[in-house]
Amino acid sequence: MTEPTILHATFTAQPGQADRIAALLRDFAEVVRAEEGNLVFDASRLADDPDRFFVYEVYRDDEAFQAHLASPAGVPFNAELQSLIVEPASQLTFLQRL
């Protein structure tokens, strides 16, 4: 059986950009959840720091994750997100299911 690809992404909004990022994530979440290989896409803000974001993603397998990365919707999303966050890019952490 193929293992799912599981990751979380974190990033921090530039001052005054958190609400724009939240709206961007809500729209992108609908697109990602419709991808054939996506199992979970949950975006959240930290309760004690609403400028910090946490996105949890699960894909059927690496092939599905690679298809997600190649998705046409990802390019404009990532370009806009990068212009709104403090970090050079979202910080990805890959996980293994127990």
Low-confidence stretches: none
Distance between the termini: 14 Å
Helix content: 25-40%
How many H/I helices?
3
The residue-averaged pLDDT reads 97
> How many structural domains can be distinguished in the coordinates?
1
Specify the structural class: alpha+beta
Structure description:
- The chain is of the alpha+beta class.
- It has a single domain (8-95), classed as 2-Layer Sandwich (Alpha-Beta Plaits).
- 37% of the residues lie in helices and 34% in strands.
- It contains 3 helices and 4 strands, in the order βαββααβ.
- It has helices at residues 18-33, 62-70, 74-84; strands at residues 5-12, 38-46, 49-59, 91-95.
- It has a 4-stranded antiparallel sheet with strand order 2-3-1-4.
- A hairpin with a 2-residue loop joins β2 (38-46) and β3 (49-59).
- α1 (18-33) runs antiparallel to α3 (74-84).
- It is globular, with a radius of gyration of 13 Å.
Please provide a brief summary of the model.
This protein is α+β, with helices and mostly antiparallel strands and 98 residues long.
Topology:
Blueprint: E1 5-12, H1 18-33, E2 38-46, E3 49-59, H2 62-70, H3 74-84, E4 91-95
Antiparallel strand pairs: 1-3, 1-4, 2-3
Helix pairs in contact: 1-3
Structural descriptors:
98 residues, four-stranded antiparallel β-sheet, globular, alpha+beta, 3 helices, Alpha-Beta Plaits, 37% helix
